[in-house]
Amino acid sequence: MRNLTVKSEIINLFGSDNIADVWIGLSDMITEGSWVWEDGSTEPTDNWAKGQPDNESDNEHCVQMRRHRKFNDVNCGKPVQFMCETDILM
Ligand SMILES: [Ca+2]
Ligand SMILES: [Ca+2]
Questions:
Q1: Residues 31-73: tens digit of each pLDDT
Q2: Which of 73, 89, 83 is nearest to 29 (CA)?
Q3: Distance between Cα 23 and ligand 2 center (Å)
């Protein structure tokens, strides 16, 4: 995610009430509590669902977006939908 504007647009696009549980490419696998996007950026997010991230059972290091565009850390092995980032060629 290259900037907050793009990130917000993606969240708005995928965060409808009809789409839930989508991987967003954010994790704290390297250092617990230090959230890093797939592109290596560390832009903070305030989209956490209430009580999240909770690192339940000390085993939640990947972030999914739930309904209403709220984020939750979950086990990285959980099978959910995902989104990809790509450059636009013009
Ligand atoms: Ca974690
Ligand atoms: Ca959680």
A1: 999 999 988 999 888 899 999 999 999 999 999 988 778 899 9
A2: 73
A3: 13
Q: Count CB-CB contacts under 10 A for residue 48.
A: 15
Q: Name which of 45, 87, 86, 67 is nearest 53 in CA terms.
A: 45
SS (H, E, C) 10-49: HHHHHCCCCCCCEEEEEECCCCCCCCEECCCCCCCCCCEC
Grouping H, G, I as helix, E, B as strand and the rest as coil, residue 86 is: coil
46 alpha carbon – ligand 1 mean position (Å):
16
Ligand 2 centroid to 89 CA: how many Å? 36
pTM: 0.75
